[in-house]
Specification:
Blueprint: H1 3-24, H2 30-35, H3 42-53, H4 56-69, H5 75-98, H6 103-110, H7 114-146, H8 151-201, H9 206-209, H10 221-230, H11 244-260, H12 262-265, H13 274-292, H14 295-310, H15 327-335, E1 338-340, H16 359-364, E2 372-374, H17 379-386, H18 391-429, H19 435-458, H20 467-488, H21 494-515, H22 543-561, H23 567-577
Antiparallel strand pairs: 1-2
Helix pairs in contact: 1-8, 1-18, 3-8, 3-13, 4-14, 4-18, 5-11, 5-13, 6-7, 6-20, 7-8, 7-18, 7-19, 7-20, 7-21, 8-18, 8-19, 10-14, 11-20, 11-22, 14-17, 17-18, 18-19, 20-21, 20-22, 21-22
Length: 588
Amino acid sequence: MDQFYINLLFVGGSFALYIGIAIWAKAGSTSDFYVAGGGVHPITNGAAIGADWMSAASFISMAGLIAAGGYANSTFLMGWTGGYVLLAMLLAPYLRKFGKFTVPEFIGDRYYSQNARLVAVICLIVASVTYVIGQMAGAGVAFSRFLEVDSTMGLMIAAVVIFLYAVMGGMKGITYTQVAQYCVLIIAYTIPAVFISLQLTGNPIPGLGLFSTHTESGLPLLQKLNQVITDLGFNEYTADVDNKLNMVLFTLTLMIGTAGLPHVIIRFFTVPKVADARWSGGWALVFIALLYLTAPAVASMARLNLMTTIYPDGTAAAPLEYDERPNWIKEWEITGLITFEDKNNDGRIQLYNDTPAFEDEAESRGWNGNELVVNRDILVLANPEIANLPGWVIGLIAAGGLAAALSTAAGLLLAISSAVSHDLIKGRINPSITDKGELMAARISMAVAIVVATYLGANPPGFAAQVVALAFGIAAASLFPALMMGIFSKRVNNVGAIAGMLSGLAFTLTYIFVYKGWLFIPGTNNLADTPENWVLGISPLSIGAIGAVVNFTVAFIVSNATEEPPVEIQELVESVRYPRGAGSAHDH
């Protein structure tokens, strides 16, 4: 069977499954739409959280990042996983016990302020919209390759599928759809990894294969990889990081950003009781670990496969003839995600680190510049083709990549929809709206959010590649501190919370916008996004952790300079932390 039809079978079959589940689990009330009726089993919720979290960034991009940066990019693994530990231990049980539908609702009630709730809504929408752009764009990339349509058409198809199961089912439909998507994406991720690990090391467990012997050379796999890439001017794959401060802050930003992301937190409102919220976090870590422990092996083996494809003898002496390039390169060239330019007209592919440090060595070899540009986001999707795996594996990974993008997009869109319908419309504009009216408003909000996300995915801002960092920075600097102080401090009041959120958000956005070149500062030449210009060597990607410190500091100073919260609010904080009782999500 032709590969296109195999891909179509896998992708179409998975879409039919998602829509069927949505019809079966159609939301009949606001409780169903927002929190799936509050009756989801912890194991089911853990799998749904896993799918919600393992977005296109985790499934497609993370291995590509690690493949490109090696040990230095292990921060993504540590930060994203560590965030779940924070969430499960410090936030989820208490937020579940508080018994609200949304993060802004908790902030509004805890800080007895509709203005605080409005600020939280703004932070939530900005963080979620910036994050969802990448998911929709990721779906377009996967479609463009595997279903042989352009990325805009791919986006349209993805939007229709999300519309059918998310607008109809709400959180109830999304929960059970995400369980199915988790099964699809984890199988799609691990099966090619097992095959490739067997090919390269003879070990069927990718995580162990990473530290096994490379069968062909007899060297440890990572040593072989270091040998191949250093000969081409790249840093050692296992090289240490010079700027430890930046690495720590980046990891911390990812951790607290994860713990503050509304589409993740909202999942913990769907379980029956507080203990189930903790168990959901534990099961989520188990399900996430299955992919995250495999990702470093996938990244390393993909990088080695790519380099030995271009340099078949494992050295720079004999690059591959362009006319003899394998079929997978030809297929990905059609998408524009692999490009080749023969700069020295020798008909061979030179892939190396085109930097001044390697310039003399490259010239001595007759090279006039790096000739092959490979988008790092394609490595996971291309892995089965690189390793010549069967067509059904390629179809499976196509379905997995789309499942990852769609599952997270649905969670983000639900968070946006809930903020608009529950926190803005019911909480501020029309408090007397009926349950039926609010459910309709939620569905309309979801539909509008899908249209906006699809448009932004097709016409991304100039900084679309960096929006994930912006989303994490916003969540880390604004929402996470407000949630932590709301649970663990009776002294922080409404004025302090609002001042803290706005200060943390303003500080973080200013730093990111200045160093990404999106905000011009009079009297400067627009500071370049380079370590030499960063304050104390802190990257814009890492500044969210500092923004959180600003938030905490301002909130405590302002709160201590103003009146204490009312007695009933202090008692509320005490009751949330008290270990007895479960509370329940209910209609408001």
